[in-house]
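Lab meeting notes turned into a lecture example. A postdoc, R.K., suggested we walk through two folding results consecutively so the class can see how the record format repeats. The first protein's sequence and structure tokens come next.
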Amino acid sequence: MEYNILKELKNFQDFKKKYKNLKNAKNIIEQIFGDSAIKFINFNRWEKCYNDVQELIKLLDRQFIFFALLELDNPYRAKILGLNDKILESKKEIKKWYRRIVSVVHPDHNFNSKISEEAIKKINSIKKEIDYYEE
């Protein structure tokens, strides 16, 4: 699966708008139906709609990580990827952070797409930079 959303975006603001719109849709569905209502209407089409919105948000979160890795530079990229001073203080935290990002961008999880291959190269180079400064 190729991540075509990156090709459609003209800038970071476009991405934020799409992300915000999808989050708003999720909030509206939750306000209208609530958790108990969604459990109550198990076989209703609205539950499917809600679940589809949840899946879209997960996909968009993944897209956000790809976008940050491939299109942004520091400090924006570091902020989006969750790389902060607290994480950099501990090798254990760095390892956790790295594994979390790799689990999202790894080609095995993304149908071996070219974009995921580029993203894994980028995250590996960032990790090498971190390791170099840690020594």
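The second example is placed directly after the first for contrast:
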Amino acid sequence: MTLGIALAASNSGNYVDQIVAQARSVAELGIGSVWFGQRMDYDSPALAAIVGREVPGVQVGTSAIPVVGRHPLLVSSQAQTAQAATHGRYHLGLAVGSTLAASAFGTSFDRPITRLREFLTALRELLDTGTAGFHGELLTVTPPLPTTVPGAEPRVPVLVAAMGPQALRVTGELADGTLPYLAGPKTLSEHIVPVITKTSETAPRIVAFVPAVVTSDVEGTRATAVQQLAFYEQVPSYRRVIELEGASRAAELALIGDEETIAAGIQRYYDAGATEVVLTSTDLAGPDDQHRTWTLAGALAGDRADSSTAAALPAE
């Protein structure tokens, strides 16, 4: 699973039906994984479970569920249910969260790194042992009944949308990898990969989420990207990685152009240390260019799969 697509649908019609149809389309093009953000409307683990059942073989992931306002016991139940429903094809993505998420739940965003550490510690215990006896400063997790969901195998992989040094260190210690977004190749290679690799006991997964559109209307699509991605410029963690890359606008991190341009841009992320790349915002230029982008992604995914197979064959 080295190249995936983040899916999102319009607000008209049945959202779940639209996403299932999209997932079928990208799977038919040879793309092996689809990912879903967690907003304040649909539930991403439930959506992933449905897609995984409806589209056999495709890997499904959430990116990312904020830990603020949520409890490890409930997230463990959701993740294991999705894992059982998909027969082992679910990937749990978490996020530190933000003041926006905290205000929606009427809770505080104080001490986010402490909360992340406690959340991952308790969640890891739940997934590894089927119970927990965790008493932290911010969280308590002491289920009176077993928490293992039969069929939730293998153990659900846990990734965190960590990009700052403190969050990356906690992620390296307690999770399986990170899900950076709007962190360009320079930021990956110089600020993200070294930190998480240093603190991880095993090779961490680096799943880079990258806005990308194959289109002939580069100027118009870039203008749309400036509008739609401007929100992230107001979030400190995203603002930091945008500036680390030497950019002033989030849209500058979007890959926009013809097939050759996008393929080269994606390769730069692998060269920088990404183990996987997920293309986002593929709908910026409309449905025709979105399909064109998915078609390229399917071809690139096939090329990488062929290369991996060839590399594994013994030399003659």
